[in-house]
Write a structure and sequence with these properties.
2 helices, single chain, Jelly Rolls, mainly beta
Length: 211
């Protein structure tokens, strides 16, 4: 199975998911701060924009003698983007990996932005976060911010989509807690379930739709 593309074949998953939501208080939790991520694979058009606004195309170098592939470090404040028909794999040191689908933008918040660990601006992401690795970081949780929700991750495999004013999160394994902000009561989304929420003006806090 091709891990860079298969996670985005989610139509079958979405058609059979059931709604299983429980309210959870996330106001006392804090977000893990990521100082850096590493790009380990870039297919097609992939670019990075640094905190100072400089944009550079991403090409993963390979050793001419060993064939080993290097990793490209991206620091806090950077934004990564993929073009049409493109993808990228990001390693989150000691925690897991993130796969970016086509036409996707992801931002790594700076340390002063304590509300989230990673931000999905638009597009499609598939994430694998190690539960035991998260526990070793203490009480903080890995948090993914989307245009419509804040997702607290307890170690899981899940996808997040932000397209056409609609945001969807679906869980393959583990638990994700979805809330509108860091101080709101969240909804637990468990394995085999997905929720949708609008992100257009006026619909940001519309009730989540279960599938």
């Amino acid at each position: 199975m091709n891990s860079t593309t298969s996670p985005f074949l989610i139509d079958a998953f979405m058609s059979i998911t059931l709604c299983l939501l429980a309210a959870t208080d996330v106001s006392a939790q804090t977000a893990l701060v990521l100082e850096e991520v590493r790009i380990v694979s870039a297919n097609g058009s992939v670019a990075a924009k640094s905190a100072d606004g400089k944009t550079s195309p991403i090409a993963i170098p390979k050793s001419a003698t060993t064939g080993a592939v290097a990793e490209i470090r991206q620091n806090a404040g950077s934004t990564l983007a993929t073009g049409a028909g493109s993808s990228a794999v990001i390693r989150v040191p000691d925690l897991g990996k993130v796969i970016m689908g086509p036409e996707t933008q992801v931002r790594l918040p700076q340390a002063s932005e304590a509300g989230s660990s990673l931000e999905l601006l638009k597009g499609r992401l598939f994430l694998e976060i190690d539960a035991e690795a998260v526990k070793k970081r203490g009480e903080a949780t890995f948090r993914l911010k989307t245009p419509a929700a804040l997702l607290a991750v307890k170690g899981t495999r899940f996808f997040a989509i932000s397209e056409g004013g609609t945001n969807t999160v679906g869980v393959h394994q583990g638990v994700v807690i979805a809330s509108t902000d860091a101080n709101a009561q969240g909804l637990e989304v468990t394995a085999g379930n997905a929720v949708k929420r609008g992100s257009r003006p006026g619909s940001r806090h519309a009730p989540a739709q279960c599938h």
